[in-house]
Specification:
The complex is a heterodimer of chains A (354) and B (258).
Chain A (H helix, E strand, L loop, with lengths): L2 H7 L13 H20 L6 H21 L2 H35 L5 H5 L15 H32 L2 H15 L3 H15 L6 H26 L2 H9 L4 H29 L3 H6 L18 H10 L5 H32 L6
Helix pairs in contact in A: 2-3, 3-4, 4-14, 6-9, 6-11, 6-13, 7-9, 8-9, 9-11, 10-11, 11-14, 13-14
Chain B lengths: L4 E10 L2 E11 L4 E5 L6 H7 L10 E9 L2 E2 L7 H7 E4 L11 H10 L6 H14 L3 H4 L12 H14 L4 E5 L7 H14 L4 E5 L3 H7 L2 E7 L6 E8 H6 L4 H7 L5
Parallel strand pairs in B: 3-8, 3-9, 6-7, 7-8
Antiparallel strand pairs in B: 1-2, 1-4, 4-5, 9-10
Classes of the chains: A mainly alpha (354), B alpha/beta (258).
């Protein structure tokens, strides 16, 4: 048996029949056409039924044809691929539509004037006015909440990863998990009863910040913990073996190695609390005037501003427009934070360049 | 400033598991001592007891005495951090600090332990890199990340980092097992030079390497899996590899094991 006769016996055994690349597109176009046709013929007037019919036709059609030409494994591959695409589209369509709607309706009144003026002398149904007071309030409240939650959260995570053994660490991990599930209104009620009812303090941005910090804390602890666990033990040992004390090892080796990921986690936590409305409604209340002092008197904030512009509008188009513009500013703020986080993560990531 | 190590009656535990039992040995200054033996026999664990790195592992615990010249490393009031400055360590896998440049990696031990003058630091970094036979390869890229070097260069960087703090003893835990033969040769040559200044203990799975670089060789073995590892014999390398006094050593070295 020579080498040649072996290959002659099974010509091209590794190469199966393959459908051309345009096959999927052709089936998709065919199913859409058929779906539209069927729904027209049956007199269905829904705008979505034809798409469902087309999707079913597409999955069945590509499976059937592919199973005949390419074989069952490839056909299954095509079905699963299309299911994944459906899942992806289902996830993206609401998001894209939300961003599109917000931008479309929000840009109407969004300009420099809107960003730099408050609602102080503008009635809810009038045009004009702006969100300066709400933007300022949100920045201060979120800033204070971050200043409270990040040091506590990062230090807790360091304790859990680097020092914590035994019961105390387990208990802390358990309570952090529980805290993750606290509804924001409950955090708000907690601060309300402690700070405002029992201690007799008034509404203020700071009271809201405390509730936001409670909501932020578990997210910071969890993400920092995961990042610290990713730091290879070898680096800690290398540092300890040089005679570096443990606290300096953590400060100079472990934290710098993971600072990119920790920053990302913190930014995501900030993004999460920026849109919180319920605790602010309970604790900060709201004002139409600029109040730059977060420690005294009600402050405005973006989420509450959006809510009130909608709720108090009485059908006025001007207030609706302001609500949408406020929502756009809120989304833009969170998006900028995310971009900054990604930038920092990339900038601080350990480099392998030569 | 090489120092003598004198171990007596040392037991090392992981939790309640006795990993290394009743080891007594002497390591001469300015010499290379190799530890050989099958996997899991406690060579690395024992090595890590010599600079108190064993207790860094959760549950790690040590009984017995380790004298560095005349000072017991496990005596009352001994600071493990201070011990590790005297007894440096090089690990199996090269582990330069990924956030630091080549220069900062070598200077890490000094910088993290206190403030040094820039000029002083420059001298120490150059001396250590020359000591690790790496200076000529990296002198133009001291500011580049240490993780950008090749595996062999990274390991020599780690050796430079370890000798920059001027320890008395250098422990090496399979320093060549992740390296190619050429890098291995470079490190072995380096070990030959370093023993003029340091007491060196090296764990290796490579018997030829033990024969090439060491003056004395210790053979470790364990009776069965789950039993503690023990020191079988310690002798001049030549004698261990030609005419060991214990049958088990001869079996292991000649490959008739188990």
């Amino acid at each position: 048996m020579s080498h040649a006769s072996v290959s002659a016996k099974r010509p091209g055994s590794l190469k199966g029949a393959t459908l051309p690349k345009w096959f999927s597109w052709a089936v998709a176009a065919g199913s859409v056409a058929l779906g539209l046709g069927i729904s027209a013929a049956a007199g269905l007037d829904s705008s979505i039924q034809w798409a469902l019919i087309a999707a079913l036709l597409f999955v069945a059609g590509s499976y059937g044809i592919s199973a005949r030409v390419e074989g069952r494994r490839q056909a299954k591959d095509r079905v699963v691929t299309s299911l994944i695409w459906v899942a992806f589209l289902l996830a993206v369509i609401p998001l894209a539509s939300l961003v599109y709607e917000t931008v479309r309706r929000g840009v109407k009144v969004l300009d420099g004037y809107f960003l730099t003026h408050s609602m102080g002398v503008v009635a809810d149904t009038e045009t004009g006015g702006g969100i300066y007071h709400a933007l300022l309030g949100t920045l201060e409240q979120v800033g204070i909440a971050t200043a409270i939650a990040v040091p506590i959260g990062v230090l807790t995570a360091i304790y859990l990863v680097e020092y914590g053994r035994g019961r105390l660490a387990k208990a802390i991990t358990f309570f952090v998990d529980v805290m993750t599930g606290i509804p924001s209104i409950v955090a708000g009620l907690f601060v309300l009863s402690l700070w405002i009812v029992i201690l007799g303090m008034g509404y203020s941005g700071f009271a809201g910040s405390m509730a936001l910090a409670i909501l932020m804390l578990p997210v910071v602890v969890r993400s920092t913990e995961e990042m610290l666990k990713l730091v290879p033990n070898e680096l800690r040992e290398a540092s300890l073996a040089l005679g570096v004390p443990k606290w300096r090892t953590i400060l100079k080796v472990v934290l710098p190695t993971s600072v990119g990921g920790i920053t990302t986690g913190v930014m995501l936590a900030v993004a999460r609390i920026t849109g919180e409305t319920a605790p602010l409604l309970l604790l900060v209340w709201v004002t139409n005037f600029i109040n730059a002092n977060p420690f005294q008197d009600p402050q405005a904030s973006l989420p509450v501003y959006i809510y009130l512009q909608y709720a108090n509008s009485g059908g006025s188009g001007a207030a609706y427009d302001r609500a949408w513009a406020g929502a756009l500013v809120l989304i833009a703020f969170i998006m900028i934070l995310n971009l900054v986080a990604r930038g920092i993560a990339r900038w601080k990531a350990p480099k392998a360049g030569r | 400033m090489a120092k003598r190590i004198d171990v007596s009656g040392l037991n090392a535990y992981y939790g309640s598991f006795l990993a290394v039992e009743d080891i007594s040995m002497t390591v001469e200054p300015r010499s290379v001592t190799a530890f050989i033996g099958p996997s899991g026999c406690g060579k690395s664990t024992f090595l890590r007891t010599l600079n108190r790195m064993h207790e860094v592992t959760p549950g790690g615990r040590v009984e017995g005495k380790v004298l560095l010249d005349d000072e017991n490393l496990y005596g009352a009031g001994i600071d493990p951090v201070a011990v590790r400055r005297e007894v440096g360590m090089v690990f199996q896998r090269p582990n330069p600090f990924p956030t630091m440049s080549v220069y900062d990696n070598v200077a890490a031990g000094l910088k993290l332990n206190g403030s040094y003058k820039k000029s002083e630091l420059d001298d120490i970094v150059e001396k250590s890199l020359r000591g690790a036979n790496l200076w000529n390869e990296v002198k133009d890229r001291l500011a580049k990340p240490g993780s950008g070097l090749s595996g062999g260069q990274q390991q020599r960087l780690c050796i430079a980092r370890a000798i920059a703090v001027e320890p008395d003893v250098l422990l090496m835990d399979e320093p060549c097992s992740a390296l190619d033969p050429i890098s291995t040769l470079a490190i072995e040559d380096l070990i030959g030079e370093l023993k003029e200044r340091f007491t060196i203990v090296i764990v290796t799975h490579n018997m030829q390497q033990a024969a090439r670089v060491s003056d004395r060789t210790a053979f470790f073995n364990l009776a069965a899996v789950g039993k503690p590892g023990k020191l079988i014999e310690l002798d001049d390398t030549e004698r261990i590899f030609s005419n060991p006094s214990v049958q088990a050593t001869e079996d292991y070295i000649s490959g008739r094991f188990g």
